[in-house]
Amino acid sequence: MISFAKRERAQRAAACVGVDAGKFAHTLVVRPTGQPDSKPFSFPTTRAGFEGAVAFIGQQAAGAATAVILVGIEFAGNYGFTFAHYLRETSSRPTAAPKLRRRA
């Protein structure tokens, strides 16, 4: 997907969610359209943790349908893989976010 299409997809979303994936826990922030970002929400990498995360996203996005919420996952190795599969089961649109490279 070219950069214009990516930007347009994000602009049409009811909310954008950024997920920092880790081995034992993930942390996410929800950015609903036209509203301030949520506080960071950390959850364990278990089915119960994933269910809690989806509930938190729905609460922060004011009940928007999961199909119009864009979730970007920063993969650290393969740690975000199970959450991406869980989101796909719940009709969300997960997408991989490239790891940021920082210069010293």
Biggest sheet, spatial arrangement of strands: 3-2-1-4-5
Rg over CA atoms, rounded to whole Å, is 13 Å
Question: What helical percentage do the residues reach?
Answer: 25-40%
Unreliable stretches: none
User: Care to count the β-strands?
Assistant: 5
Shape: globular
Mean pLDDT: 83
Tell me the CATH superfamily. Answer: ATPase, nucleotide binding domain
Question: Architecture, according to CATH?
Answer: 2-Layer Sandwich
CATH topology: Nucleotidyltransferase, domain 5
Structural class: alpha/beta
Tag the structure with descriptive keywords.
single chain, alpha/beta, Nucleotidyltransferase, domain 5, globular
Report on the architecture of this protein:
The chain has helices spanning 3-12, 47-60, 81-89; strands spanning 15-20, 25-32, 41-44, 69-74, 93-97. It has a single domain, classed as ATPase, nucleotide binding domain (Nucleotidyltransferase, domain 5). Strands 3-2-1-4-5 form a five-stranded mixed sheet, covered by helices on one side. With 104 residues, it is α/β, with parallel strands linked by helices. The mean pLDDT is 83. The protein contains three helices and five strands; from the N terminus they run H-E-E-E-H-E-H-E.
Structural topology:
Blueprint: H1 3-12, E1 15-20, E2 25-32, E3 41-44, H2 47-60, E4 69-74, H3 81-89, E5 93-97
Parallel strand pairs: 1-4, 4-5
Antiparallel strand pairs: 1-2, 2-3
